Amino acid sequence: MEPFLAVGEILKEKGHQVICTFPEQYRSLAEDSNMEFASLGTKFIEMLDSDVGKAALGGSGSRLKKILAYIKLAGKQTEINKELVNKQYELIESEDPDRIVYNGKATYPIIWELDNKGKTILVSPVPFVHYVKNHTHVAFNSNFGSLLNKLTYSLANFGLITTVKITTKWLKMKRKITRKQIKKALLSNKVIYTISPSLFSKPDYWDENMKVLGYHEHNKEINWQPTQDLMSFFKKYKNNRILFITFGSMTNPEPEKKTKILIEILERNKIPAIINTAAGGLSKPDKFESRLIHFVSQIPYDGILPKIYGVIHHGGSGTTHMALKYGCATMIIPHIIDQFVWNRIIYNKGAGPKGIRINKITTKNLEPKILELINNSSFKEKAEQIASQMEKEDFREELYNSIVE
Length: 405
Fold this sequence. Notes:
By secondary structure, the protein is of the alpha/beta class. It has 2 domains: 2-219 and 394-404, Glycogen Phosphorylase B (Rossmann fold, 3-Layer(aba) Sandwich); 228-392, Rossmann fold (3-Layer(aba) Sandwich). It has helices spanning 2-13, 27-32, 43-49, 51-58, 63-95, 108-113, 146-170, 179-188, 228-236, 255-268, 301-304, 317-325, 338-349, 363-375, 377-392, 396-404, and strands spanning 19-22, 36-39, 100-102, 120-124, 190-193, 210-212, 243-246, 273-276, 293-296, 310-313, 329-332. The chain starts with a helix and ends with a helix. The longest helix has 33 residues, at 63-95.
């Protein structure tokens, strides 16, 4: 949600009317920013939070179990996607917008672009969606060599074009739209990567319609106050290297097991840590007491990260940027798709050790990684250098002009 709320606020400040269309579960995010809201319903997020969704996206068990979970999820997703597409269509047709700023998961804006050239803007907080030399498309997460790497982008585009064609059938459109027309719309529309150039810079061979315009957050009034227990925790360990551990909005089928692994490592090595249970990817054990570990269920990152030495997290784009914004040494435990890319970027930038995917962590393989995160001071130094670079970035005007021109 973060880059879209931020973009919406920039447009609203310039006098434009902004309508946010998100899943119903995120209504308050738009309304708290004083923007209009149009609901996409609850089913999509409910699907991701289901047992099948957790198994597919959270990662657990064998590769076969994960594949079976993906198949079950795809079966559920068809009807939900039909509903999402129809809601997009109805809203856009009724509002007749001047511009559509959309996420890669939305398909109707691509069709709308055919009759409204230059009026759609794809915003992606995820790198490697468009061709970059020596990298596969983000969905493939590997390195097959230059020729096959390039082919992965063609395969991804083929899949997207097919999805858009299916969308035209769901909408029962009388007009026949060809694959060639869809491909042309995809290649010519505006693309804005809301990523800090200190982490991912624009390749010099990209066209002018594609830009990397920095990380953007929406304005937040932080009325949050730490509890007395949390204040006491910070006071007690003010001279220690405190870790913050969160899996954000990610879930997994074994939160108790994952949390137990972390607790064992932290307590054995006397590392103070704050664990955020958030969406349920981690959980506080019953009757748990520890002077070293403090559990929270929700906490604003802006309020806590300035006091933190290092962060262990799932590797979402927003959390990755936030951790580095405050100069925190970082280790990623990737769950899905782009999180594996952020894991490599953090490692290659020298801001932290290379993390282990969620379904592969054990006490034996995770412990040395956490100790490396804490004890290798170069990670902290590099994170602080990146924070300094990010502080100097200001792309608000260029982002605005890229949308409205």
